[in-house]
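User: tokens in, sequence out, please.
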């Protein structure tokens, strides 16, 4: 992998390399992103995908993701399953659609029922790009992870930590956002349950909605996009994309950045970080021609 990286640098000069691999070895994360592929199209594999991406984080490959909607399987297109996969992949560092030549096509433009929800989900991802980029920069410089089980960051009671248990069906992103994906068919239901650690959690889809977590299950609404809540004491960068004007990272560079703050109730404080650069030039990184802020509120 290192040899390919070095050849890329020689061939493309100042462009930052992007290498994608299915396999991995020691130090792969230094040079390449990883795609978890050949996964089946099922709700079980939707759950496994979440855990496999978190596992890659621990292995030192922060930029990774599973094939959205699965690589193979099913005789018929299950639109809701694919929607749930797209929703969860909102926070996969590598979010891509890839599938075998067998079976039904699962691209969103093939959908009849959930096309608008998938479109909203793709635009929802763009709102968090700066936060994602900041976290990936920090892992590049300092090591670390961007997707974590709740147990890594919160004191989750032991009886809720079991495999397949309450806390294992949700995850933290960038240490700031709790993501609550839907991991099974809703069958028309409009609510579902998700585990919340103690504290006040702010709904990113509606800042006026709060969850008072108490190491228990809370009822959430089934939304067009994935349920996301800002952790107590967290401060994040956010770019409103409700008008769907951010289509690319270049669009994001032209969009104002706002800060969303959820002060911790006891200390009345919050903190976060922000990384800014143009995102293309390798020299920009090598020469440290970028901006990095630690922000306290």
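Assistant: Sequence out:
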């Amino acid at each position: 992998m290192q040899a390919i990286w070095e050849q890329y640098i020689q061939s493309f000069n100042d462009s930052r390399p992007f290498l994608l691999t299915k396999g991995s070895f020691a130090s792969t994360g230094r040079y390449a992103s990883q795609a978890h592929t050949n996964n089946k199209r099922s709700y079980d594999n939707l759950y496994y995908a979440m855990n496999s991406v978190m596992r890659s984080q621990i292995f030192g490959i922060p930029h990774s993701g599973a094939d959205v909607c699965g690589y193979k399987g099913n005789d018929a297109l299950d639109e809701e399953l694919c929607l749930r996969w797209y929703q969860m992949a909102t926070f996969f560092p590598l979010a891509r659609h890839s599938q075998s030549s067998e079976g039904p096509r699962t691209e969103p433009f093939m959908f009849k029922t959930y096309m608008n929800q998938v479109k909203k989900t793709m635009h929802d991802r763009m709102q968090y790009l700066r936060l994602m980029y900041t976290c990936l920069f920090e892992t590049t410089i300092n090591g670390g992870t961007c997707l974590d089980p709740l147990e890594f960051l919160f004191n989750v009671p032991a009886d809720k930590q079991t495999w397949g248990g309450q806390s294992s069906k949700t995850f933290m992103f960038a240490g700031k956002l709790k993501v609550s994906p839907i991991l099974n068919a809703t069958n028309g239901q409009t609510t579902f349950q998700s585990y919340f650690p103690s504290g006040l959690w702010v709904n990113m889809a509606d800042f006026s909605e709060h969850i008072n977590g108490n190491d228990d299950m809370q009822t959430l609404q089934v939304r067009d996009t994935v349920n996301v809540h800002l952790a107590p004491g967290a401060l994040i960068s956010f770019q409103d994309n409700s008008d769907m004007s951010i289509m690319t990272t270049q669009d994001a560079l032209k969009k104002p950045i706002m800060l969303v703050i959820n002060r911790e109730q006891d200390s009345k404080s919050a903190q976060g970080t922000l990384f800014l650069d143009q995102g293309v030039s390798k020299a920009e990184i090598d020469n440290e021609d970028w901006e990095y802020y630690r922000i306290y509120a």
